[in-house]
Amino acid sequence: MKKLQIIALCLSLFALASCSKKADNAVVSVPLLQVGKSISNSAPLTAGAYKGTMLAGQTYTVNGDITINAGDTLLIQKGVTINMNNGANFIVNGILLSIGTSDAPITITDPSKTKTTGASLVASDPAYVGGWGGIYCSNTSNLVVIKWTHLNFGGHALAALPFPATAGLAAGNQYLLYYENPNGAFILEDSWLYGSPDDATRFYGGYIDIMRNTMEKCGSTGGDGFNAKGSSYGNMAYNLIIGGATNGTKTASDGTTAGECQFTMYNNTYVNDGFRNTGVYGARSGSVEIENNSRALIYNNLIVDCDFGVRIAGGPAGAKVYLADTTSSTTQVIPKTAYGYNFYYVDNAAMAGQIVPTSVAQPVVTHPQSTDIPNMAAFLGSSYTFGLVYDGSSLVGKNNPMFVNYPLPAQNSLWLTQASVDSYNFHLQSGSPAAGKGTTNSALIKPIALPSNLKIDANFGPSELTLPGADMGCYQLSGTGNHH
Amino acid sequence: MISRLPFRRFLLLMLLVLGASPLFAQTIRGNVTDAKTGEQLIGATVHLSNGKTELNTTVRLDGSYQFKNVSAGSYKLQVRYIGYKTSNEYTVDVTDSKPAVLNIALVDNSTALTEVSVTEHASRETDNSARLFEKNALNTVNVVSANSIALSPDVIVANVLSRVSGISIDRSNTGDAQHVIIRGMDKQYNTTLINGVKIPSPDDKNRYVPLDIFPADLVEKIEVSKTLTPDMEGDASGGVVNLVMKTAPDHLRIDGNFGTGYSQLFFNRNFLSFDGSTVASKAPGEINPGAPASISQFPYQNLVTKSGYAPPNANASITIGNRYLNNKLGVIFSGTYQNSYQGDNSFVVVQENTVGPSPNINTPNSETAFQSSYNRQYSSRLSRLGTILSLDYKIDNNNSINLFGTYLQLNEYRVRATETSTYSGYSYQGYVATNGIDDLTETRTNLQSIYNITLKGKHKITNKFSLDWIVASSQANQKQPDIAQFKTTHQTSPDLANGKNVADPNNPQNSVFVTPDIINGPTTVGNESRVWTHNSDKDFSGYLNLHYNTKIFDRETKFSVGGMFRHKTRDNFVDQYTLPNTLIANTNNAELYTTIPAATFTFAQNPSNAYGTSSYDPGVYTFLENIQAGYGMIQYFIDDHFDVLFGVRMENTNQSYYSNLPSNLVGKSATINYMDFLPSVNVKYGLTDNQAIRASYFQSILRPAFADFIPYPQVSSDDPNTFIGNPYLQHTTIDNYDLRYEFFPGAFDEFMVGGFYKYLINPIERVLQPGASGATLFLEPENLGNAHNYGAEFVAKKFFGNIGFSVNYTYTQSQITTAKSIDVINQGVSTRPQTRPLQGQAANIGNVALLYKNQKYGIDAQIALAYTGERIASVSRYYGLDTWEKPETFLDMSAQKSLGKHFVVFAKANNLLNTPYELFIKQNNSSNYQGLLKYAHQESPNYTTVEYDQYYARYNLGLRFKF
User: Fold this and answer.
1) Partners of A188 in the beta sheet?
2) Mutation to test the A interface, candidates B367, B776, B780, most A Cβ within 10 Å
3) Are B406 and B454 spatial neighbours (Cβ–Cβ below 8 Å)?
4) H or E element: which one contains B116?
5) Interface of A with B in 91-130 (CB under 8 A)
6) What would you report as the CA-atom Rg of chain A, rounded to the nearest whole angstrom?
């Protein structure tokens, strides 16, 4: 095998060398999309209905809710900064496009708050307060595309319902992103979410594509990261989720007539998740949670110092959860929940004892996988039954994933307080035991395809549905995956 | 029902010597009844004299009196009874060959107001004194008299009502009956009147009046009309409860009672109380609208509770009445005060929106695992004050007016101690253990009051033409200042070192971790909640009725026309706050709990919490309603046995509301108008003198509750589901058919059997519904197609001298078919029709009572059994998963003994069986009932118990006096 690789390498070097006519590396500008009239930033925007374009590189001040009416489009061009005051929200009944670029990202923030680094505490870190509100999309919103956008300090409590209640919204809610249209699409790519007091997202319906994002400090003493419910379906891949209060990615079918909640979750990196939920539900928080008969495909994730491993749980109607785990339907987007090739590193015995979650908190139906690192199927043996309590202390400190810059084993319970990336670097070093151990077998895992009315597009769709990568976690040694 | 109000003045005396018996003639006997209602006047004194001999006896339990071994001669006979006018002196001749029979119908001390209608009745009551009011009434009426109330084991009106045939009740968490369900028609289908005038409700959402606010002491009698005539308001489809308050006597009357009592519950556990004087009467958002509140505006003092023995209950009432100015002016005052300590212990499983999936559409889902449950202990101090003042003035024989005022107040000071268990997946002692336990202390002050002022007049213009009118003003208020709840939490975990994995007997592929002991985490302070609400409902109404009596084809005919209006204004206010707890410095852990005063809260990380919800809360609204109605009806006596009453009523409804909803939402305000024409026919056919058949048809309506319109999700701590109103709700119209056969074989024996059928068009039921984008469920009032409700009623009374036996039984069957969800695995949610009874309707309702009266020792006693069969408590969104209430049998007892002429001691005991209030779901429960992960309070593998409340027995002891 090794010999074959060397031969192949030599051959390709030869081919490169022999190819004298190589294309010039030219970056050609493309015209920026503009929609309707431009929106002036000469005065702060007051509460009202808006459509048109916020112009590239401009700074806007917003003092009240920005409402996009059904049928209207609001475009935010690259490099725009929007300073949101008074807990203002985006209320989207039409189309919202926030198209930043890696060179000129967009920032939506509360200007009164600044980021902090190092140990993060709920009582003092402004990340958990909720400065501006959120992006709340009603069931007439057909498309939301957010690319290369910083969403900082969102989650101010909704003073009142932004639109008639149809799914899961109530006054007082503190979400950052909310989407519920079963016939629409919500695209969040290459963006940053920093801080939220509760669940950072709530998706109740539609095609949802969440790829290559970084999420820090979401949830104060409760709240999940990317939380999908209802009939929403799509992908959550190549995200870095650090310091989340409860779960990093979560799905739950809450009994909707529009279908079941189904997601792929692959090549995500979860670090220090599940430790700020100090209430009784803290007994149920960790990295990935699949509950209430939702379905998911969970592969190639790198899970480091999280309270729980991948957990397939029953939700409130737990006793029947077994059905959800064992039956399959070929007519569904995801015929059956499946998982494997996930990589775990833990720094204490409590976490080690929940790599395959026990039923102490709630009945679970998680099968230990032989493809996981460590091999939990072998570790737990053939006598394993769902929910078994086991002693995992021998797994503590094993399989250091070798991040480029993050101290493992972590000292002084660092996982409790380090909730942001700061100057750390969660790329893998070459030689990491997580490198190359993932699966790219499309029979096991591939992204859920776009619905027929959506295309790969620079403005009106995702830029790329990144396929599963062999290096576990969100950063591929090849440089693909998460670009942050 | 103006024309049949019980304001009677004239002594109506009917004397009837019934025929010949060939036996010995030393006996004088007869019956004594109420001239209007025909009810037996047990305990009335019959005085017999002939100058030499003076004999006294009292009327026995069967309504009869008897003087045995009276020597022949001519006697004077007179009857006296408290609350009634003393009868004339009658002459009775006793001969050797014949027993003398004298039946007397007394007239109560009512005012002069109903002179006209008494005359009307009198003209028909020529041949039999033993008619019951029920027998003579134009419609189907049940009457409970003051005497029955005094004799019954009940101290409030609602409990009395549960003894009437066809009536079941629902209870508040003090164990008192609160609302009536009449013949399967839930509380919203029934109305409450005081002296014939509809009164507003202190309820913050609904129209129906909580009947536990009425002390039984003020009430002279209760009339329950189960069918409507055109002169009655058309929004009572189950029935109308008319509380007839006490009226002025014809001579000085002073009576009253005082007593004490205790609840078995507080022999078993401590009573919790708090200092009501520390409650802030206004919300911070009311004091400074729009400004943020500070933590100091939420004092902790009213959250500090005290645990100890409950003091004994105390109650006292007094009634003073007299007549002045040549008997033209009658005055009566009655006041009552009750201070009682009540409560219950409650276990509630919190039902979730999601269910276990079903393998296919034909298999119902099941709710087999629950996330949490509550163990609650309620301790309430109830202070009930009721006063009435009534003045009547008889201008002349043809004209009279009456001014009536009442003020009723029910103040509740309640502590609710809740232990919330959040269930885990491990096992402790065979039961599902917890991940954590919350302890919540809620203190609540609920101040309810109703006042009503009514001015009435009756005028006989000519012999044929008469009229009556009413002008009334009423207001109901409810204030709940600072419903405050303090919470502590501790986590609970298994002993991982000493526990073991055990195969789950219900689910062999699963392990259950069995712990030998529970490890408790530190107790921390949680968020505190504070809520202020108040609402008021004001009515101004007027009624006018004109009557014209004539003859058509030589038959008596009565024409009536009339009208009414009511102007209603309603205000609701709610302001809610959550006070975030604080964290231990340099950690993310909540503050450790020491005491309530020491707990600290801060708005620093949640600045928006400092603003209450009142600016957008849907509980803040005003509601206006104008109703105008007119009717015409004719009563025609086809022959001596056959009369018919028919007519039509028009009711016009204009409603509007204005709420605090955000202006971007549909339904911030609305105006709603509709007009109904409601025909009614009542027919009575007398088969013989003591047998009759009645038939009736009438149409009625149901107006939606006020809060049912406002389309905004409303979260309440009392209901796990979010309530959302529906401004497109249609009012319900109901066709009602009644048929009844009645037989009065003896003086007071009765036998009635009847049937009814109701067809409901657009009934309103509360349904759990997913919102347009699914996921979250809302409890929404909806028009659910059409429903049927039919049944049969049976009443029998039989008296054997001093022992009486009465039984009533109602069978009701209602039917409604609606689409219910089935969550099928791999398919998601589909629907399937399910047919079920209406919410709150029990198929079987029955009462049995045994009465005993011993003249010699002055003893009365009663044992009463009330049975209500199973019924739906709440409708599930899922097929077959409705929550049912278990059948209930209540056993109550009362006894009294007279001490001399003026005093009676009495004792009452309620709920001797400690009948639980139990809710359940009809589903396979085997995994909750057996195995390692059992839930508390499960009784069967065949159904799941989701609520189990116990009120325990209550005892009362007292002394009544009359002068």
Assistant:
1) A146, A210
2) B776
3) no
4) helix B115-124
5) 121-123, 128-130
6) 22
User: What does the pLDDT profile of chain A (484 residues) look like in tens digits?
Assistant: 455 555 555 555 454 444 455 678 787 877 889 999 999 999 999 999 999 999 999 999 999 999 999 999 999 999 999 999 999 999 999 999 999 999 999 999 999 999 999 999 998 999 999 999 999 999 999 999 999 999 999 999 988 888 887 777 888 889 999 999 999 999 999 999 999 999 999 999 999 999 999 999 999 988 999 999 888 999 999 999 999 999 999 998 776 667 788 999 999 999 999 999 876 665 678 899 998 778 899 999 999 999 999 998 865 444 444 455 656 777 788 988 899 999 999 999 999 999 999 988 888 888 999 999 999 999 999 989 888 999 999 999 999 999 999 999 999 999 999 999 999 999 999 999 999 999 999 999 999 999 999 999 999 999 999 999 999 999 999 999 999 9
Tell me the Ramachandran region of residue A234: left when phi exceeds 0, alpha when psi lies from -120 to 50, beta otherwise.
left
Please return the burial class of B54, using the count of CB atoms within 10 Å of its CB with bins 0-12, 13-18 and 19+: exposed
Structure tokens at A22: 């190589």
Nearest to B510 among A197, A205, A363 (CB): A363
Lookup: tokens for A184: 């629409």
C-alpha distances in Å from residue A350, one per residue of A353, A372, B126, B237, B551: 5, 19, 93, 63, 96
Q: Do residues B199 and B474 lie in contact, with contact meaning Cβ atoms separated by under 8 Å?
A: yes
| Cβ neighbours, 10 Å, residue B359 | 12
Residues 6+ positions from B900 with CB-CB distance below 8 Å: none
With tokens 């979401």, the residue in question is: A218
| Residue A359 touches chain B, beta carbons under 8 Å | yes
- For residue B300, give both structure tokens: 């902790």
Quote the CA–CA distance of B179 and B190 in Å, as a whole number.
Answer: 9
Q: Give φ, ψ of B610 to 5 degrees.
A: -75, -10
- Please list the residues that pair with A329 across neighbouring strands: none
How many other CB atoms are there within 10 angstroms of residue B73's CB atom? Answer: 13
Contacts of A323 in chain B (CB under 8 A): 356-357, 359, 825
Contacts of B771 in chain A (CB under 8 A): 165-168
Prediction pTM value: 0.85
CB A403 within 8 A of CB A429: yes
Q: Is residue B159 classed as helix, strand or coil in its secondary structure?
A: helix
Neighbouring C-alpha atoms within 13 Å toward the C-beta of A143:
19
DSSP letter string, B194-222: ETTEE-----SS-SSPPGGGSBGGGEEEE
CB distance from B586 to chain A under 8 Å?
A: yes
Asked if B811 contacts B843 with a C-beta cutoff of 8 angstroms, the reply is yes
Is the CB of B519 inside 8 Å of chain A's CB atoms? Answer: no
Which value, to the nearest 10 degrees, does the dihedral of the CA atoms of residues B946, B952, B953, B955 take?
A: -130
Taking the C-alpha atoms of residue B931 and residue B665, their distance in angstroms, rounded to an integer, is 50
User: B937's torsion region: left (phi>0), alpha (psi -120 to 50) or beta?
Assistant: left
Nearest residue in chain A measured CA to CA from B590: A278
Helices H / strands E in chain A, number of each: 5, 33
| Chain B residues lying within 8 Å of A320, measured CB to CB | 356-357, 366, 368-369
C-alpha to C-alpha distance for B450 and B471, rounded to whole angstroms: 17
Touching B: A residues 277-316, CB under 8 Å = 278-284, 292-293, 314-316
* Cα distance between residue B518 and residue B524, in whole Å: 17
Nearest by CB: A389 against B496, B586, B821:
B496
**A229 vs B: CB within 8 A:** yes
Structure tokens at B895: 């006894």
Q: Which two tokens stand for residue A25?
A: 């590396």
For A95-142, list the strands marked E by DSSP.
95-99, 106-109, 135-137
Q: How many other C-beta atoms are found inside a 10 Å radius of the C-beta of residue A5?
A: 9
